[in-house]
Specification:
The chain has 217 residues and is an alpha+beta fold. The protein is built from 9 helices and 4 strands, in the order βαβααββαααααα. Helix 1 runs parallel beside helix 4 and helix 1 crosses helix 9. It has a 4-stranded mixed sheet. It binds glutathione (GSH). Glutathione binds next to loops.
Amino acid sequence: MTITITAFERSPDGGKGLARDTRVRWALEEVGQPYEVRLVSFRAMKEPAHRALHPFGQIPTYEEGDLALFETGAIVFHVAERHAGLLPDDANARARAITWMFAALNTVEPPILEFATAKLLEGDKTWSEERLPLLVDRVRDRLSQLSARFSDADWLDGKFSAGDLMMVSVLLRLKLSGILNEFPNLAAYVARGEARPAYKRAFAAQLTVNTGKPPTG
Ligand SMILES: N[C@@H](CCC(=O)N[C@@H](CS)C(=O)NCC(=O)O)C(=O)O
């Protein structure tokens, strides 16, 4: 059955891979599932046809036969459950990998998004200068907790899993800020994720959409 996902017709990040279709592409690449992409404009995302798929008028969505999903956590989990490669067979290890997916989305991503939003969209507000350091501190707190738990292992819990895919995807948003580099084990972890062939294919695919050109080098 054909898998179709949606992505921005033109991503606000110009193809840096931060739009959330990248994590879905990455999951599909990891498990070797081909997929098609329907590009949507900001206007189309808010129209009834798209809202029927995504009640909040966002990307990405996922369609496969009769099934339509939204929310990257649910989509990546679905892909990982249906295909080998992203969740361990051992029941406890599987439960732990799923725990890390939730941790990435519920505990690590929120302060990173608050910080990114404040920097990108609220920088001109009078209160921004006062608020930004608080948000940076919250991100630092989370990263130092993750860094301490992570130690110098390659992945969060043994082999690479959907938990790592989600955690790396969430941390990538910090790459340009410099905060990630304050935690060398986390910076190395993100680099390991980016070095995976499946990530590279996913990144290249979204870059080609956004720039008309595949990555060089
Ligand atoms: N929690 C959702 C967030 C989805 C989301 O924020 N999508 C962004 C693109 S990365 C979007 O569509 N933004 C446009 C908008 O909200 O109008 C998920 O993980 O899928």
